[in-house]
Design a protein that fits this description.
about 170 residues; acyltransferase; binds coenzyme A; seven-stranded mixed β-sheet; transferase; alpha+beta; about 35% strand; Aminopeptidase
């Protein structure tokens, strides 16, 4: 497995992964598909902000991606990032998500991030277990704060604090 920074040529597969989750899953609470131009803009925005978008490649095929961006826009949150990780369905359950997350955590540490927060659908036990194995702990559960496919969804917040530095 090769884990590398995403390039513009990955926009098509990032679009496919995102839209699959929009149409079929509750890991993403959006219902409108995106197009390739929007994913290119996402890549450009993250690049301009110095934020990583990592892809995992297996035998030349992109299996999935992981990234983080600001958790909340206010100044005081600037060392806290919210991350996401998505794999193509055929690559799930093979340890690629944890490998992507480990690489993302290294980037976060190197980039001076103090805390990483994942916002996870409460029934996404695969993702919750993955995060627990990586050392994340559940720090909040917000019942019925989302909806999709005619169901209320609970949001589970999981956090990994990356260092014990005093606040600057
Ligand atoms: C969640 C996700 C990132 C985990 O990555 P992964 O590489 O599949 O992780 P793992 O191989 O370590 O599997 C994690 C757990 O999920 C289960 N799992 C993952 N994909 C599965 C699938 N398609 N069917 C059944 N179980 C699956 C694994 O069996 C494992 O369970 P365990 O902890 O009891 O062993 C990945 O499955 C994915 O992209 N899912 C869809 C999008 C999503 O949920 N993203 C996370 C948003 S917070």
């Amino acid at each position: 497995m090769d884990i590398r920074d995403a390039i513009d040529a990955d926009a098509a597969v990032l679009t496919e992964i995102y839209n699959h989750e929009v149409a079929n899953g509750t890991a993403l609470w959006n219902v409108k598909p995106v197009d390739e131009a929007q994913r290119l803009a996402f890549l450009a925005d993250r690049r301009a902000a110095g934020l990583p978008v990592l892809v995992a490649e297996i035998d030349g095929e992109v299996a999935g991606y992981a990234s983080y961006g600001p958790f909340r826009p206010q100044d005081g949150f600037h060392q806290t990032m919210e991350h996401s990780v998505y794999l193509r369905p055929t690559f799930q359950g093979r340890g690629i998500g944890p490998a992507l997350m480990e690489a993302l955590i290294v980037r976060a540490r190197d980039g001076g991030v103090h805390a990483l927060v994942g916002a996870i659908d409460g029934v996404n036990t695969g993702s919750i277990r993955l995060h627990e194995r990586l050392g994340f702990t559940e720090v909040g559960r917000l019942p019925q704060t989302g909806q999709k496919f005619g169901r209320w969804l609970d949001l589970v917040l999981m956090q990994l604090t990356l260092d014990d530095r005093p606040a600057p």
